[in-house]
Amino acid sequence: MNNNKKKLKIFVCATEQSGDNIGDKVISELKKIYPSILIDGVGGEKMNLNMNLQFFSIKDFKSMGLVEVFLSIIKYYKMINFLSKKIIDNRYDMVITIDSPDFNYPLSKKIKNDGYKKKIIQIVAPTVWAWRPGRAKKFSKIYDLIFTLFDFENKFFEIHNLKSITIGHSIYYIENINTHMHKKKLIAFMPGSRIGEIESLFRYFEIAYEELLMSEDNIEIFIPTLPHLKKLIDFKVKHWKIKTLIVTDDKKIEYNYLKTKFALVCSGTASIELTKRQIPQLVIYKFNFFTELILSFFVKIRFANIINIIENKMIIPELVNSNLKKNIFIKQFNYLLNNSIEQTKQINLANISLKKIQKIKAPHNIIIDEIKKYL
């Protein structure tokens, strides 16, 4: 069969910015191989450029943490039912879900129970090695293939006979490496890619701003963000007296990273991307009190940053949950901001760790090669 002439329909679901980045590369490559392919689903602005129908956007996913998700459970339940019906009715040739296991797994389970017979693929495995290891067995009953970011993850799924392939981390694509950071003047503020994260954490970015305001250095603040979040951030910084660049254009963001000497960042994909760019940073994150309490009984790891998790020690400084307090934050922020020796040490140690997780692979090529086997 000539697959290039076959009319294919695929459903892709990504509810976070990191998933949208991955989905964009996968969809773009599929379009090259199968020019007539129809791709529907859930994604952000990047994926939407090559999608036929976008049922929901990442803008519709604002929750973070167990309690916050629970409070939105009726909304997500309705979305899952809606998407399941679309998938069954439209008879897609494949379903691809990206990251976001707390949404994508229930969706995949629902379509499986509703009679979907084609392949279901998950890109980015849930962190079963950190908490809720039982998810590996559950995933094996629903998914036909799972792509992992790290080699050590495969064993958790393969023991349940779920085909697992390591694709490496998307930092593979970052070529814009920051050097001579001590000569730069931008301080990056990265408060997250969800409204819930921004609302929860922004008071600490305001505290950092106040500390910078007392500095005599000729600095500017740089906030890379998403277009749909710009209005919210504009409002929050409207009275700031330090020049603040709020940037949504990818090329301008990359240009400004080259002028960034230090970053205050919400934990997540952005943090490891900063590490690859060799920008020293302080990581912060804060769950709802009740979410933190619940997680304390289940989570097996001590850290939030993947570099710290892999090394089992603090390489990338982080203040999370109950450790994120104003007095501690101010002390740590100023110490790291003004200590060039500590900044260099952080980058050097992080570079050693990066070699363990940054495989010399192009993730989307590996994904496409596997997808083609099923189409």
Secondary structural class: alpha/beta
Which segments are poorly predicted (pLDDT under 50) over 5 or more consecutive residues?
none
Total number of strands:
13
Termini separation (Å)? Answer: 10 Å
CATH architectural name of the largest domain: 3-Layer(aba) Sandwich
As a whole number of angstroms, the C-alpha radius of gyration is 21 Å
The number of distinct helices, counting runs of at least 4 residues, comes to 16
Order of helices and strands: EHEHEHHEHEHEHEEHEHEHEHEHHEHHH
Number of structural domains = 2
**CATH 4th-level superfamily of the largest domain:** Glycogen Phosphorylase B
**How would you sum up the global shape?**
globular
**What's the arrangement of strands in the largest beta sheet?**
3-2-1-4-5-6-7
Q: Could you please say which CATH topology of the largest domain applies here?
A: Rossmann fold
β-strand amount: 15-25%
List keywords for this structure.
13 strands; 2 domains; single chain; six-stranded parallel sheet; seven-stranded parallel sheet; Rossmann fold; 375 residues; alpha/beta
Explain what this protein looks like in three dimensions.
With 375 residues, this protein is an alpha/beta fold. The protein is built from 16 helices and 13 strands. Strand 6, helix 7 and strand 7 form a beta-alpha-beta unit. Helix 1 packs across helix 16 and helix 8 packs across helix 14.
